[in-house]
Design goal:
- The chain is globular, with a radius of gyration of 16 Å.
- The chain has eight helices and three strands.
- It folds into two domains: 62 residues, Fe,Mn superoxide dismutase (SOD) domain (Helix Hairpins); 105 residues, 3-Layer(bab) Sandwich (minor pseudopilin epsh fold), CATH 3.55.40.
- By secondary structure, it is mainly α.
- The protein starts with 20 loop residues before the first helix and ends with a helix.
- A three-stranded antiparallel sheet has the order 2-1-3.
- It is 51% helix and 12% strand.
Amino acid sequence: MTFTLPELPYAYDALAPYMSKETLEFHHDKHHKAYVDTGNKLLEGTGLEGKSVEEIVKASYGNNQPLFNNAGQHFNHLHFWQWMKPNGGGAIPGTLAKKIDEDLGGAEKFKADFIQAGIGQFGSGWAWLAVKDGKLAIMKTPNGENPLVHGAKPILGCDVWEHSYYIDYRNRRPDYLKAFLENLVNWEHVEKMYAEATA
């Protein structure tokens, strides 16, 4: 399949003040669009044209770095927009909350560890909540890499590339991560991805 840029599931100003209209315009319309456009060019002639985004990400990992970079970032961003919503954050839904208690020591510890993963990712990358071997795990990856290539299924990810937060937070990555968890996360979507990952 060729990559296509999705519409945002909310208005550009819907996530303010935690993520500004300007950030979303740059991040979605320029950065994500570039991954789509470049990814489509790099996909030509690879024999992967008819595959799903997930299959392209896995097949290009370690074999075709330029394609992997763009396919990975396309996959990551397809979900990143869905992982946020206006008036997000709040209580984690029941089934997922119980699993977080079991595997990650409770909601507060999970949040602290997730923020630390994002802070501790040197340079560009992502912080993740993923399902691996039936258990929840917090992961971090560089650049466009994601848990798919490490045998895990991501159910929540936060983009810690500077273009994701620098307009709004400058160099305050911890504040951005905290705002993401407390005010932006669409927990219903995370719960849906958790159900799919464990089905």
